[in-house]
Amino acid sequence: MAKKTKITKPKAGTQKTLAQKGGPIKYLGGLLFRRMAKGGAMELGSNVEEVNQLNVFPVPDGDTGDNMHRTIESGVAAIENVDSDNLADVMHALSRGMLMGARGNSGVILSQFFAGTAKGLSSHEADPETLGKALEMGVKQAYSSVMTPTEGTILTVAREAVEYAVGRITKKSTIHSFFADLVREMHNSLERTPDALSALKEAGVVDSGGAGLFYIMDGFYRVLNGEEIPDTPPAIREKEPERATPTVYTFNENSEMTYGYCTELLLQLQTSKTDIEHFDIESLKAFLSSVGDSIVAFQTGSIVKLHVHTFTPEAVLAYCRAFGEFLTVKIENMSVQHTEQQGATSAQTPSPSPSEATEPSAPQLEKKRYGVVSVSIGRGVEELFRELGADVVIAGGQTHNPSTSEFLEAFEKVHAEEIFVFPNNSNIVMAATQAAELYEGAKVHIVPTKSIGTGYVALSTLDFDAEDADTILQGMDAAIARVTSGYISPSIRNAEMHGLTIRTGDTIGIVDKEIVVAEAERMDATFGLISYLLSLGDKFMLTIFVGADACEEETGKIEEYVTQKHSGVELYFIQGDQEVYPFIFVAE
Fold it and tell me: Rounded to whole angstroms, how far apart are CA atoms 367 and 351?
């Protein structure tokens, strides 16, 4: 049986709070919805780590809470400057922001739920019946975004809650009574998820995506009741290097501005300043080319995202503001970044002259036939994928899922007619697919690589001289089918799974979403997983990506074990430097 969750059942609004708001409201407008959306993001933010820990496997890679929180936060950021009480305007801005910021499968499904809901709202305000119909469209779109919908997940929680709330609408219904029914049933549906999905029942948890959706909607409801939700930002576990504060030892009063500014912004086009439907993104790119290089610029709806390296960021801001207003702006001194990266040795290395640094990249007059975008985490893995032909490597992996927007930026940088994308993680495939559907500058093919191991094998077989993409994809599919990938990880809780008794601190080996070995000692689990992988069919080669947490002594023991126990197998080590998993195995 699933253990009792800590998720608190929602409480109905008191007569006092409703009286303070002038009584239950009949219509939901844009200004109130803005506050509700922000409250939903803050409520999830306060419970991110709890959602992260609702992980089926007892490994330290749960990131559902992080992904959903960052997705809705992107939506909330997009409505900050929407000064309108028009519900349709606010909802559409929210959904656009979530679509661009969606991360992980749960974040993509969440963004699709709100995108479908936005399609159902076209008026200044909505009564319970209109809102119910819009949410039904949201559920439908969320289901359609998943190739094989699974019940007992966020989809079920959304569907059952909306069906229940809509079924209880009467002529006396208010927005408050509608949300009371919606959130109450969402909690009840969440509690039932282990009954619908055996993996949840075996792990003793409720569905993490459903929990994230519940917290968002509970935040909506609490704001509707007049509550103030404290803003307690979660500690997002993103593996980005922390940049030290500039000091007199890096960029100071005697330094030369050598590398210009890395300038990024989100521009909200304004109907009062330009014809949004016919906005010329190519003219913007031409201007950016005249003042800088490393240019990425694309338009999604009424929002433009751009990136440029330039000595004159003020010129970029002035040019762009002629067409709209900024949602976000980031300008970073690249000379500071370069000096910090070089450290003490930078003083001994001649820097490029200002003319060399600012010269725009030569325009690519013709797109190349094929391009490659790959996701990777770990310095060694990134270097390997670049050597194998990846044009752009996006930093990402478990606990660090790239957003739809990051994929779109990568596609723009490749400058190819057809782009092959290697997500290399099952939780990244949907964001990559969503970006591929949005991108119009090339034909994008998502290669179904769900691990670093399968990504490595598939990329290794990519034939850039092939006449058509279908031939390339068929070859990679065949290569993936011959491969079995696995990994080891520490266990973060006690569990009874797949016939194994697992204790906190044990090391477990996982293959294709199944725990196949659990041992108290890491090397015992490693040896057990190796033997399991090599027992699957006619395997003759084993490649091991060595993580940042592994040591030379351990690789020596692995080599000795394989030599003694599996003497006919070719063994290769790759220094991947990946986080979370000490070893990732690829058996062919």
Answer: 31
